[in-house]
């Protein structure tokens, strides 16, 4: 899709990857509806973008039903006024690196909700007001393709989002709407605590800058790539994990002691 003058609803716009995507999209001539919980943070992002007056901010807690309905209403209003949204990017996300046994029910619900249920609901809403041709792009994770200790909830949610995107894209074949999936590997944002970043460094897990992810998102939008896994060797591990999961399990088993060490440190910090 040509991005010039396209209107894009971007969730998680105040976060590390969201800001980078917003910057790239604005530079490509798109007009943004920036969504996040914090109005000031969204305004601060808007102020940094090319031609700030072309972009709007919308503060909403996407896990709150009323806020989601307000966003639906706003998008419908844009539809009626002819300023239709052409692209939705479901980017807002959270995670907690912890053993399942340590997790509260509320934190599990919150993580599944924002990472999987909310994108499903936003996609469903979008079917009513998204312009044709239109794109829904879901930001997943390498952990949607590889189960990793300490991230069981996150892996489950992102894997669900991958299959959801694939199924909906096929369901909407020939409807004028594409559903795309982009899966970053570890990325240098506040989503990862300093201890998680330290663990990734010690284990040799490579990480990308948010700008690398944003550029890949723009490429996927322009070329309408169905799914994209960012970075070697993660891209390869995702494939190997599908065919020979025992090989990946062996490699993760070698990291197990360090993973447990860091989870225990994070857990004891909280107590
Ligand atoms: N960083 C990584 O290592 C990594 C790797 C793979 C995939 N990803 C995925 O990339 C996406 C962006 O992550 P990031 O690294 O940029 O994280 P981040 O910097 O922590 O940003 C998260 C964004 O989500 C928003 N958000 C959180 N809870 C929300 C809620 N209840 N309602 C509305 N917005 C909410 C935050 O805004 P407010 O707090 O202001 O509401 C913020 O804009 C996520 O889907 C994540 O799973 C990240």
UniProtKB/TrEMBL annotation:
* SUPFAM superfamilies on file: NAD(P)-binding Rossmann-fold domains
Going by the entry's taxonomy, the superkingdom of the source organism is recorded as: Bacteria
Q: Name one Pfam family in it.
A: adh_short
Species annotation: Vibrio ruber (strain DSM 16370 / JCM 11486 / BCRC 17186 / CECT 7878 / LMG 23124 / VR1)
What residue stretch is flagged as signal peptide? none
Give EC number(s), comma-separated. 1.1.1.100
Coiled coil segments of this chain? none
InterPro entries hit by this protein: NAD(P)-bd_dom_sf (IPR036291), SDR_fam (IPR002347)
Full protein name: 3-oxoacyl-[acyl-carrier-protein] reductase FabG
Molecular functions per Gene Ontology = 3-oxoacyl-[acyl-carrier-protein] reductase (NADPH) activity
* EC top class named in words: oxidoreductase
GO cellular component entries: membrane
Q: What are the UniProt keywords, alphabetically? A: Oxidoreductase
As for family, the record states: Belongs to the short-chain dehydrogenases/reductases (SDR) family.
């Amino acid at each position: 899709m040509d991005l010039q003058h396209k209107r894009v609803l971007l969730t998680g716009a105040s976060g590390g990857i969201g800001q980078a995507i917003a910057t790239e999209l604005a530079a490509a001539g798109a007009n943004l509806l920036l969504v996040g919980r914090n109005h000031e943070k969204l305004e601060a992002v808007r102020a940094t973008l090319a031609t700030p007056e072309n972009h709007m901010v919308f503060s909403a807690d996407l896990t709150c039903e009323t806020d989601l309905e307000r966003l639906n209403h706003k998008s419908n209003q844009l539809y009626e006024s002819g300023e239709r949204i052409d692209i939705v990017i479901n980017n807002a996300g959270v995670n907690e690196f912890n053993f399942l046994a340590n997790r509260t029910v509320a934190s599990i619900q919150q993580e599944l909700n924002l990472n999987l249920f909310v994108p499903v609901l936003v996609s469903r809403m979008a079917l009513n007001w998204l312009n044709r041709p239109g794109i829904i792009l879901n930001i997943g994770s390498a952990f949607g393709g590889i189960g990793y200790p300490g991230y069981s909830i996150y892996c489950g949610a992102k894997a669900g989002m991958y299959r959801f995107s694939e199924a909906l894209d096929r369901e909407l074949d020939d409807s004028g709407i594409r559903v795309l999936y982009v899966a970053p590997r570890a990325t240098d944002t506040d989503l990862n605590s300093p201890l998680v970043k330290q663990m990734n460094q010690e284990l040799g897990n490579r990480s990308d800058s948010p700008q690398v992810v944003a550029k890949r998102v723009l490429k996927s939008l322009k070329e309408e790539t169905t799914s994209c896994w960012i970075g070697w060797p993660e891209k390869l591990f995702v494939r190997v994990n599908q065919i020979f999961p025992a090989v990946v399990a062996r490699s993760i088993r070698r990291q197990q002691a360090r993973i447990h060490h860091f989870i225990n440190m994070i857990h004891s910090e909280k107590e």
